[in-house]
Amino acid sequence: MRVRVLGCSGAIANGCRTTSFLLDDDVLIDAGTGVGDLTLDDMARVHHVLLTHSHLDHVASLPLMLDAVASLRLASGAGPLQVHALPGTIAALKAHIFNNLIWPDFSAIPSADQPLMRFVPIEVGQVLQVGGKAVEVLPAVHTVPAVGYAAATPSGHWVFSGDTSRNPAFWQRVNQLPVALLVIETAFSDREKELAQRSCHLAPSSLATELDQIAADQRYPIYITHTKPAETGLIMEEIQRFDQTPNRADDVKHDIRWLSAGMCFEL
Questions:
Q1: Burial bucket for residue 198 (CB in 10 Å: 0-12, 13-18, 19+)
Q2: Nearest Cα to 215, choosing from 267, 244, 252, 189?
Q3: What pLDDT was estimated at residue 241?
Q4: Cα–Cα distance between 216 and 254 in angstroms, integer?
Q5: Is the pLDDT of residue 198 over 60?
Q6: pLDDT at 252
Q7: Could you tell me which of 62, 32, 23 has the C-alpha nearest to residue 264?
Q8: pLDDT of 240
Q9: Which candidate, 31, 104, 114, places its Cα nearest to that of 78?
Q10: Tell me: the pLDDT tens digits for 75-123?
């Protein structure tokens, strides 16, 4: 399976695009501003969108993408785009985006029987079969209903934490999986660790505690995502500092790397 990083920033700026990953060519994990770098043909090939939660940086491109490729999908008979999300996320999108005020309700256009988009409720622990891929829904702890995902690949699971704070249930499940690669958020620096805690995000100090939950027999690359552009440099410095310090338990140094838009992984 190929994983293409379309966006992995916690906000926008020149060269910074918000969260979205393309699995092969037909499944999106989140639909942040990074989707805008896809061609029309690329967007038309997407048949499933798996959302982690309802915040704007993760859904901003969904209504715009649907509008961009509506005529292509109708002409090709592709059927509705399947948007998989928690019931709470679906309710928020219906109430606040696809409400015929902010954006047309594409779940009823051109008709309720044959819409451009169809919402598919999901739940934590469910394994979704999308585009020939098995993707498990993982728990996340955020200010709104949220999840992460683990996509099975021949090399192991590609695991994405989603937006989350301290999350024991996540590690309990991840430690049971053969992990090939972990993508985990660290939105704020320790200078803003109180704000990170209030907004249910990680900072380097809380990330360090979370990574201590990785099973002793598991080693895999860890990619940092969702950093705020104004704090990315400081976040990286703080993470490097804690990871160069002997681990409190086993003197283990993690394989921590920095995620950037345009990266592509073959797993």
A1: exposed
A2: 252
A3: 85
A4: 11
A5: yes
A6: 58
A7: 23
A8: 87
A9: 114
A10: 999 999 999 999 999 999 999 999 999 999 999 999 999 999 999 999 9
Identify the three-state secondary structure at position 40: helix
Name residue 242's amino acid: F
Question: Residue 110 phi/psi, 5° resolution?
Answer: -75, -15
Residue type, 131: G
Instruction: Give me 263's structure tokens.
Output: 């990266």
Q: Which residue has the tokens 């109180």?
A: 194
For residues 202 and 162, the answer to whether their CB atoms sit within 8 Å is no
Give me the phi and psi of 215, to 5 degrees please.
-60, 145
Q: List CB contacts of 252: < 8 A, sequence separation 6 or more.
A: 216
d(CA 245, CA 267): 30
Q: Which amino acid is at 244?
A: Q
Place of tokens 């993508």: 183
Residue 91 contacts residue 100 (beta carbons within 8 Å): no
